[in-house]
Write a structure and sequence with these properties.
This protein is mainly alpha-helical. It is built from 15 helices and no strands.
Length: about 300
């Protein structure tokens, strides 16, 4: 992997880590489900107008949009709104990696190696410690919501894998067309039109401007810029070389939360988080092959 691409990967890691910080003022102003609907709606409109629809089966596009888009961010935004620490959320979402491996084994009959199983068990153990510690402090529900978001992300990964799009960027952009309608519907039912309208009518206030700034970062920087650069890196380099860089996102997220939001995680959560990241990394390492060509084929 060229040095230029390594620097670009680190650049994306920083963008995505700070994305969690930007969500904080956004969710302070917008109700969570409404924020999710707006986030994807502002991407969906220009996508429909200017981007050709990818030639994939509709069921995989719908599955990717409902899993990666609707489910992941509905649960994540609800978790952050109900007390999930921002930095810890960036870590717990890494559960999507072992969830993806498990779902792939169950539904796609992909073989599960001893290395992957060991990594999954380590990650699950780390998550279990975090959940136990949070339960001791009566704040288990936000962790559960975040884990549900990670599970939805994993389900979306399987749909993306089955779709096999020729242009991943177009596929990712068209995914944004799916979430707005179900998220608007859920927001209308559970948050109400009055709350939705109030968040829009008060955009000119101090809190509203901060919320709009956070919203703009999440959409333009975290989603459009970050995802586009990452997709390019995945096309230019082996996936098993690029993917481990994403494990640095919680490092940036938790560090930024410490300095910006004054969040100080408990030592047991930090140690459990290291076990989670180590487990995900260990499970994602490629199998040893007799030749470099075989390694390339397997990845």
């Amino acid at each position: 992997m060229p040095t230029r691409d390594r620097l670009l990967a680190l650049f994306v890691v920083v963008l995505w880590g700070l994305n969690f910080i930007a969500m904080h003022p956004m969710l302070d102003h917008f109700p969570p489900l409404f924020a999710g609907a707006l986030r994807f709606a502002v991407i969906a409109v220009p996508t429909i107008l200017f981007i050709p629809r990818p030639k994939v089966k509709l069921r995989w596009l719908l599955g990717f949009g409902l899993g990666f888009g609707t489910g992941q961010f509905a649960f994540l935004f609800l978790a952050l709104t109900h007390g999930m620490p921002t930095g810890l959320a960036s870590l717990v979402l890494q559960a999507s990696a072992p969830f993806t491996v498990l779902l792939g084994g169950i539904f796609l009959r992909e073989p599960l190696s001893a290395r992957q199983l060991t990594g999954i068990l380590a990650a699950v153990a780390g998550m279990g410690v975090i959940a136990w510690h949070r339960a001791e402090n009566a704040v288990l529900m936000p962790v559960v919501l975040t884990l549900l978001g990670a599970l939805c992300w994993a389900a979306g990964n399987l749909c993306s894998r089955q779709a096999r799009p020729e242009n991943p960027i177009h596929f990712t952009l068209w995914m944004s067309v799916i979430p707005p309608i179900p998220m608007f519907a859920l927001s209308t039912i559970f948050e109400g039109p009055a709350v939705q309208w109030h968040s829009l009518a008060t955009l000119g206030t101090g809190e509203g401007l901060l919320g709009l700034a956070g919203f703009s970062y999440v959409v333009l920087v975290g989603t459009v810029l970050g995802s586009s650069v990452w997709t390019v890196l995945m096309r230019r380099n082996p996936a098993n070389v690029v993917a481990p860089f994403s494990l640095l996102v919680p490092v940036v997220g938790m560090s930024a939360a410490f300095f910006v939001l004054d969040e100080t995680p408990a030592l047991v959560e930090v140690l459990a988080g290291l076990v989670v990241v180590a487990g995900v990394l260990f499970g994602s390492l490629p199998r040893r092959q007799r030749s470099a060509e075989a390694l390339l084929v397997s990845s």
